[in-house]
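Supplementary Methods S3. Input chains for the assembly prediction are listed below.
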Amino acid sequence: MNYNFTEIEVKWQKIWKEKKTFRVALEGQRKKFYCLEMFPYPSGSGLHVGHLKNYVPTDAFCRYKSMQGFNVLHPMGWDAFGQPAENEAMRRGRNPREMVPEYAASYRSTLIRAGCSYDWEREINSSDPEYYRWTQWIFLLLHRLGLAYRSTAPINWCPSCKTGLANEEVKDNRCWRCDTLVEKKPMPQWFFRITAYADRLLADLEKLDWSQGMKEMQRDWIGRSEGAEVDFAVAGSDVKIRVFTTRPDTLFGATFIVLAPEHPLVAQLTTATQQRKVNAYVRKAQGESEIDRLNATRSKTGVFTGTDAINPVNGERIPIWIADYVLMGYGTGAIMCVPGHDVRDFEFAKKFKLPIRQVVSRDGTTYNLESAEILEGIAVNSSEWSGLPTAEFKQTIGRWLEDKGIGRPTVNYRLRDWLISRQRYWGAPIPIVHCPACGEVPVPEAQLPVLLPDVENYHPSGTGESPLAAIPAFVHTTCPACHGPARRETDTMGGYACSSWYFLRFADPGNDGAFASRSALDYWLPVDVYTGGIEHARSHLLYARFWTKVLFDQGLLGFEEPFNLLRNQGSLLAFTPGRRPRSLEEKGGSDDKIVDWIVLKHDERDQVPADQVVWRWARMSKSKGNVVTPDDMTERYGADSLRVYEMFVAPFEDDVHWSEEGIQGSHRFVARVWRWLQAALALYRPDWRETLPRQETETERRVRRKLHQTVQKVGAQIETFQFNTAVAAIMELLNEMYACAPLDREELAPGPNPAVVSELAETLTLLMAPFAPHLAEEVWQQLGRCESVYRAPWPPFDPVVAAAEAVNVMIQVNGKIKDKVRVALDCDEETVKQEAMRSEKIKQLLSGRQVVKMIFIKNKMLSIVCK
RNA sequence: GCCGGAGUGGCGGAAUUGGCAGACGCAUCAGACUCAAAAUCUGACGAGGAAUUUCUUCGUAAGGGUUCGAUUCCCUUCUCCGGCACCA
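Predicted structure tokens for the full assembly:
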């Protein structure tokens, strides 16, 4: 029978839907398995084959787990709130409220056509009031705990998106949505106090089965650094300047102090003679864009305040400067400068002719410093502490500072609080009311959700106020506390608020009395396997961990880490035509981020002469016009072939260069499986177990051994996310099957034992089920089964059948393989030696030489060393 | 600059604990089937050498080391990818 994949796939997708095959319910006595892919925001470009690089392998994983008897939770939903969706709606002149469900429907249909096993009854949409009601509820919880607060600080402002951004949303000083350079703008904004959890977020990384790189990124982002705070007295005053340093052991080398230009003490410390210079410098620093200030390569600038401080360890007077290389946002905004052992301080000291003193040495001697020497070593020029090794000195000086009451050991983090408010329409409104009498008042729980009003024009205002501020009916309200007139908060929450708890909602999506019931959470959570792109390393994954810990601390959850196992899929790259930039503007101006390649727009492709087209591999995206759609591939090769290709083409975490030749190869394989199984049907007998031959032929033994080995291998490799080698193992098996039971036209050539053929056919069908589920269902039915193969038990393997009975043992002479002997499995050393000595070649090599030693590794190797 | 990860045929990639390098697939070539083509099936396929169904040398970015034995462990160098980057 011909492999009519379209017919088979449509048929089974319909049956799965009708029979609700993938619906799951809490079954306390059954072991659960929760597999989750980061929920996407539904974009108008639809899904492309790159997205399936994630969804398809995890789907195979779920199907495998179901066959193993697990109660599998595999949900899907839409990260519908937030800038990506809103930006897209604006681009298309649509209202996101109408657009989102439409695009979600398109995603859903593509996923269904790819054969993905989602429980669609649990579909969630973060822009649904029934969902964001609980996002607001968690906001209020954080507020109650003092973990949500409003403060005015210079924030990252994207002039193109017209909203503030969290630090995590800024990369290379650009908005990560639109690549526009961000500005610093002081504005009252809402923050979540994630820094209060910095230590736990860092420590608990140890427990997680995440890639090394992923954990490292989180560690770097949290940026814990141990050091000490030291108070420097200001000469002739009782003012103190507190500095943070990671090297308190270099205090004797501190020859000046630098404050950030924004430091609150600057005005007070500036003397009349320096006033003009300092004022000018501070003004310049304020006016300067962040990008210039953070540019580490430009030369240092700064001015003297006119005042000195006293170095507490030696009583020396040292000058106080201000310079923009010190940031107000980190540590105390003031540093003690040890030019001998810090590159930046060294450069500053050289430029302004400040003294440089060596206080750490490689070997305890003093020598001339050509440049800053960053090292741990032996203290020198440090009075009675000279001679102490760095680590010891750090501890001693820490205690000394504490005793004197002028300092203490401290820990500092790079992580900043999470800026959550957005001056945008498309997000969950922040449930706070501003009352002239009572101040900031949380909206009572019973009044949730604070509905996002339906409006015609939702475009960002650009004034720094959300478009909601222009809707009087929304803004004007009464204070929940005193019932006087009050104003609603008009900022909305950034999209990451929604995605910080959605994995909890999937456990109990319909609950209208809580974000999820405790029993559902206890049963389904935490997530057993979580997958998604690496781009969320420092944002979503950090935020979600933070919220989970807060909910845990409130006794609302029984676990502290939401995603114990995380894997990041690679992306698909397409060969894409582009061209060189033509103007300076296209190059990105004078900026350091140089654009040297611009994707050709569709209408440009015919206009640009062929010799000017530059082809490159680029990530698939609709905007580049290089996408391959799953629907197209499904039509031409079938969903099962597409699935097999997505898994076989490369390891899960690797990027892939898309080619259509590859999918043809996978299609050949799937069709070959189909043909063999169709031929085998004629010989199939369900009672094959009872009629397996007692005396197997060599061929039967060989193919059955391969079969049982493959069952073992495929299971183990799915567990470890090695989908590519799992498919390869089935390919090997199929090759062996064709060799042992070849086809003659459309039938099995005469000869093979029906029981063995039956075992092969049945087991192969089950092995294929996670990868090519439609084909497997069809054959499973042809084999006379009524229940879905999704619930069929994963085949067991017999270790005795799988065991090789004879092995090749390599014979090495002086480290080189010279011969091999075929011996029984687990054959002992003596026998292998005797066999080896029978070999002419070995005999010849050993003649006249003295054997020094022999190393024997069972089933592998006999290594003979001789002189 | 600092911190991760990686480097294997023409290509994607595979190789338990250090033990037959190149599984599986793509591409290519040859053969079978066919009037022909497609599809399918079979075979060859790292590089070099020789007395060419066989034998042999080299070969996992480069160089060194440990070891009976290294793609695997250690050191040095190079390249690529990713993250951070005036964070005191």
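Chain A has six domains: 12-128+497-568, 136-193+417-496, 225-412, 581-616, 636-802, 806-866. Confidence is low (pLDDT under 50) at residues 589-593 of chain A.
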